[in-house]
Design goal:
This protein has 443 residues and is an alpha+beta fold. Helix content is 66%, strand content 9%. It has a single domain, classed as Up-down Bundle (Outer membrane efflux proteins (OEP)). InterPro entries: MdtP/NodT-like (IPR010131), OMP_efflux (IPR003423). It holds the Pfam family OEP.
Amino acid sequence: MDFYRTLLTSVTCRRAAWLLTLTIFCSSAQTVFAQKGELLTLPDAIELTLARNPELAVFPLQRRGLDGIGQTAALRPVLNLGVETEYRRFGEGGSNIAPDPDDDADNEFELAVTLSSVIELGDKRRARVDVVNAQRDLLIANEQAKALDLLADVIRRYVQVLAAQELVVLAEEKVSLAKESLSAVSARVSAAASSESERLHAEAALATAILGEQTDKSMLIYYKHALSASWGQPGENYHLDSSELYRFEPSASFEELYARAQENPAIARFASEERLQSSQLRLTQTHSKPDVGWYAGFLKNRAVDENTVLAGFEVPLFTAKRNRGALTTAMAELDQVMLRREAALLHLYPQLFLAVTSREQALGTVSTLENSIIPKLRQVLKEVDRAYRSGRSSYVDLIVAREELLDAKRNRIEAARSVLLFGAEIEQLTARPLGPMGVDSSK
């Protein structure tokens, strides 16, 4: 089963193409699912989740927020308009007699108008814009990683529904076999060939099988609700193609898978984060260059009919020295990103290795059960049932043969589920199909 065939385009391209693909997927998924009614495929589940899951809806809002931050970052320094007035009155000898308002010798009025701003040195505006662009790239990487995590969860739930459907079928088979055993025991008891205790035992076994069937059906309902909750519509009015549980695609070598895993969005986001921290460092470095403040204007004195031109500038001192602490912090944060990436790769290696080896082991288990164990146990049950009906075998032998066959079939279902779950984990880690590059592994 090629889990990510429908996802690769949307998580590996830039956001604009991703949104276009997503829009197409959303409309087609809802239409296809409506047409099929009760049949749900994995592409349907993935596309419905992309269309409706609220965990992905927050990213467009964050992108709008970054657009606003980008507009602010691109602004040039503010231009300030200053107006200052001064009115002075003069009296003779400090008397309280009010001066003549028309006498300029006794009244003086000044008006000063200035414009002021700063000149940013070190290309600070470009550095701010670069930081916002790096934040956008990191947001895209986070969105892709979140989409992979979310869809991996959808795939796991899808596999659980597949396995639960098969377990219900197995439970129904167990009930059917218990009924056949009860019929055979009842016939022998009626013929006085077996004791009444065997019939009671068979009746208890049938009741136990019915309880197990009810439990498995309840679990199937739960897994269906959990799957459909991924796109916000919990329900159970659908079914899956159970044969998908046994469709396994060939896997690439571990070396090839590990090489892919190092480029998956969860690891690639560290590159985006590193670019962001580098931009933050460059912005911090620009703060070591002081901004030059300036002003210009004129001063008018009406009393003496005098106009004065004003101009000046100011430069903060010791800016580079005061910025050393911020530079140290920015460089430390950049180094931390690199170390976190190395730590993630160290954790990725054993995680991927365990998933690959466990999947191979589960594949071997499925193959052995299908080709060797189950056919033989099925034949054993036929022989023991025939022998029991003819009185050549005991009831205990019949029960043991039946349980061994049912256990083998259950183990096959569990092993097949493990194959798909480990495959989903591998594809989540690599963000690629399992098969070798250049090989079409679609089913």
